[in-house]
Write a structure and sequence with these properties.
Number of helices: 7
Number of strands: 5
CATH class: Alpha Beta
Order of helices and strands: EHHEHHEHHEHE
CATH superfamily: 5'-nuclease
CATH topology: Rossmann fold
Distance between the termini: 16 Å
Structural class: mainly alpha
Shape: globular
Largest sheet: 3 strands, parallel
Radius of gyration: 15 Å
Helix content: 55-70%
Strand order of the largest sheet: 1-4-5
Number of domains: 1
């Protein structure tokens, strides 16, 4: 099994614990690596979602803090930031942007040579179509 970086949607699936396919992959992955890897951008996305409607999502915050010791958080460094900027600029030029955070996550994954575990594989295929070596995996399949 190769080390992966979890996209927000996959981490959220793990926090919910409802999808048997995701949970099986998560348990197998955790047994091998003893931690889940996410980006600092994913931390931002999680808390943005929680505080968008705190009363409705405060239990998600509690679950995230319980899970925190089991997380390796990869920061956005200079090199991954430059790469993300290039990716986003090229996507904007093609008229097929993928949002503000996703190019950052793609840049972090590529720079750190990590597979991106995401349910948004079609979305991230746009990065691959530009010629970037982004490896994708969908834990829902």
């Amino acid at each position: 099994m190769k080390k992966v970086i979890l996209d927000n949607d996959t981490l959220s699936e793990i926090l919910r614990g409802r999808n048997p396919k995701v949970m099986e992959k998560a348990h197998n992955y955790f047994d091998e690596f003893e931690k889940f890897t996410i980006s600092a951008v994913t931390v931002y996305e999680i808390f943005q979602g929680i505080y968008w409607d705190y009363e409705a999502h405060k239990k998600k915050e509690e679950k995230f803090f319980v899970m925190l010791p089991d997380l390796e958080v990869i920061p956005l460094c200079l090199e991954s930031g430059i790469l993300a900027g290039k990716i986003n600029g090229e996507l904007l030029k093609t008229g097929l942007p993928i949002g503000r955070c996703d190019p950052l996550i793609a840049g972090i994954a590529i720079h750190n040579n990590l597979t991106l575990a995401t349910g948004n594989t079609e979305h991230y295929q746009r990065v691959r179509a530009l010629g970037y070596p982004l490896t994708l995996e969908n834990w829902k399949e």
